[in-house]
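User: For a teaching handout, I'd like to show students what a predicted protein-ligand complex looks like in token form. I'll give you the sequence and the SMILES for zinc ion. Please answer with just the structure.
Assistant: Understood, here is the input followed by the structure.
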Amino acid sequence: MKNAEWLRQLSSLTGLPYYQQHRIFGDTSGALIGVTDGYIVGLGLGKGNGGHAAVKALLRYAKTQDATHVQQALTPAAGKFKLTTDQTTATLVQTYSFGKPEATDVAERMRDLLAALKTSASPIDGKCEECGKAEPQILLLNGVPTRYCSGCQVQLTQKLDAAAIAYENLETNLPLGLLYGVGAALLGSIAWGGVAYLVHRIFLWGAILIGLFVGKAVVKGTGKVTWAARIMIGALTVASVTFGDSIFYALIRMNENLAFVPALKVVLLNFWKLESDSDGGFISALFGLIGAGVVMYGTRKPAFQARFVALGTPAITLSSAATK
Ligand SMILES: [Zn+2]
């Protein structure tokens, strides 16, 4: 069955309006968005973890302090849906491989979930989620269906604009970042070389830890992270792991006739040959960069944007109007 057809069927089973134009779960077929017993419900098709096709749903309730309580109440009703909850939203994802689940099954599952939700969270009931003022309309805030009054919309937009300006004005302290980064990289090298020498093997995940450690240190020093800081994180991570290798080689070569520092000198002079001859040299640097990458990704510029989109007219009404 085509996605749109399936959603149409699900729409008539659940009573939730079908909006072909709102791709809140990613799929071009759109989504069902509506209210059941005061709870805001979104239901549609999209992608689960690892890109699997999935049925997705959002159940939204009035803010609760106890999301685990909601989680516990909904779990028995979730069936094959994977459930996560936060203070305002239960997110459900059911991946499938061969054909979509029956719309009737999904509709029944939704009924059970909403029944369980009634026992554990209050409905939003026609009120602005922010200030509690009466708000008849549902709209999408960055793709999430919500009730948000016009006053709060203006406030949120202003707040985010101010946050964006404040972010732009943040200082980036590259020298301090470099100082912290070099310190962390040195500690990482010593730990890397020392552990490798003591246990006679290398742990690639150790390189990831070094990347994380160096990255965090640079971020602590610079404050706001710019491209220069990101390059610094990557370079220092590679330097830390490879210098750690050198420490390891020097420790191996050290003996009664050769102290550590001269041994290290010999190693550094022959560094490229040693590194390209060894099994793990470049791979460990690569693993270090994975750790560094995690930190870099975490410091990307936040999105200071609130996009409000009115729901408009559901597709079902549109098509039935067209056939009349
Ligand atoms: Zn409000």
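For the handout, you might add this sentence: The two ends are 25 Å apart (CA to CA).
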